[in-house]
Amino acid sequence: MRIVSVVGTRPQLIKAAALMPVLRRRHQEVFVDTGQHYDESMAGAFFAELDLPRPDYSLGVGGGGHAEQTAKMLERLEPILLDERPDAVLVYGDTNSTLAGALTAAKLGIPVAHVEAGLRSFDRRMPEEINRVVADHLSRWLFAPTPTAVANLATEGIVQGVLMVGDLMQDLAARVAADVRDPAVLGPIGKRLGMRLTSGGYLFATIHRAENRNPAALRSWAATLAAAGSLDRPVVLALHPGTRAALEREGITLADGVAVVEPQGYRTTLSLQFHAAAVLTDSGGVQREAAWLGVPCLILRDRTEWVEAVAESGGRMVVVGLDGAKTLGELARLAPADTSPALAAERARTLRLAPAGAAAAVAAALEAAAP
Length: 371
Ligand code: UD1
Ligand code: UDP
Prior knowledge:
The chain is an alpha/beta fold. It folds into 2 domains: 2-167 and 356-368, Glycogen Phosphorylase B (Rossmann fold), CATH 3.40.50; 176-350, Rossmann fold (3-Layer(aba) Sandwich), CATH 3.40.50. The chain has 16 helices and 13 strands. The protein has helices at 10-26, 40-49, 66-84, 96-107, 127-138, 147-155, 168-180, 186-193, 215-228, 241-250, 266-274, 284-293, 307-311, 324-334, 340-350, 358-368; strands at 2-7, 28-33, 57-58, 88-92, 112-115, 141-144, 162-164, 203-206, 235-238, 258-261, 278-281, 297-299, 317-319. A 7-stranded parallel β-sheet has the order 3-2-1-4-5-6-7, sandwiched between helices. The protein has a 6-stranded parallel β-sheet with strand order 10-9-8-11-12-13, sandwiched between helices. Helix 1 (10-26) packs across helix 16 (358-368), helix 3 (66-84) packs across helix 4 and helix 4 packs parallel to helix 5 (127-138). The longest helix has 19 residues, at 66-84. It starts with a strand and ends with a helix. The structure holds uridine-diphosphate-N-acetylglucosamine and uridine-5'-diphosphate (UDP). Residues 9-11, 36-39, 42-43, 63, 69, 94-96, 127-128, 208, 241-242, 245 line the site of uridine-diphosphate-N-acetylglucosamine.
């Protein structure tokens, strides 16, 4: 099959890295990068680290409001799809690049394949929820990562073309697990970041969701991180540039116990998660990775689409939203300073992470449908 894949953001580059080698064994792929993410640390660095080929088309869209960003993508994608005439357009996840890829293809009558279909937060204030709902309703193939995603689609009347394939990001995490499991990886990372990192001796955080960038939310999680981190046990916060800009706009300075670092590479991020005492995040990808790696994880959102990850964590993952007292209470329960190093060492000894087989399932399903 001849497939145009559309990516644009950090998590989509990561998902593409999981699927691409498998997809390209069976299909011809044209790779389009919308350029929604554009900093070296958010996009460029992942090409080299994850062996991604240069895009066949780089749309250079960049940031901007939702309408402006999506409109630029629609305008720039259409001539490419008209020219390439693919059998399918493949989109990942729930970003504006996902929406633009699905909408442009559907309007041209090109079948859409949606990887990570069926996830729902049931909160239409989230831009991601709107993107997912539209992409799912326009898709011919709906590759669902979880049984809940399949059920969500059925509730909306979508049953045709739905396939439970598992989670692509688990395939990639399993591929690099051996590179991150030795606590010695923290040595060079700490050196590069200018801090001493010990196994179980720090917390790791990422925050970027739109709802966590409004002034009240910024103040709330900044106070929680200030209380959670200390010079003895810092919070290492890999800060998304959009969140950094929001903090600067509000004039908010983070506490000394919060070590703010640039967005990190994929293996570094997995390493920082795996050896942390606990992870605090609003990221969809990071919360699943924390689940697979067995690290305590506090989800800084009111709800999550990844209900299985939380349900199967045995209480190790907790949705805490912006409730500071709850976050600190759960940290005290799940990651006490005195026992966290031993817990982290035990995780490093026992890590077993199998691939989900999602990449192979997606490639095979598309092959079965090839014209
Ligand atoms: C987007 C996705 C979100 C996903 C996240 C992954 C949408 C609506 N949101 O959010 O679902 O979880 O990517 O990280 O598609 N910026 C930079 N440099 C970059 C990228 C962004 O400075 O390389 C700044 C810009 O100020 C930009 C802002 O971040 O305007 C927001 O970026 P954008 O891509 O619109 O949304 P994200 O918050 O990254
Ligand atoms: N990630 C990364 N560097 C960072 C923060 C996250 O490589 O500094 C990775 C993370 O390990 C996961 C993916 O980015 O694989 C998640 O993407 P992100 O949090 O940007 O978006 P979301 O998953 O919430 O859509």
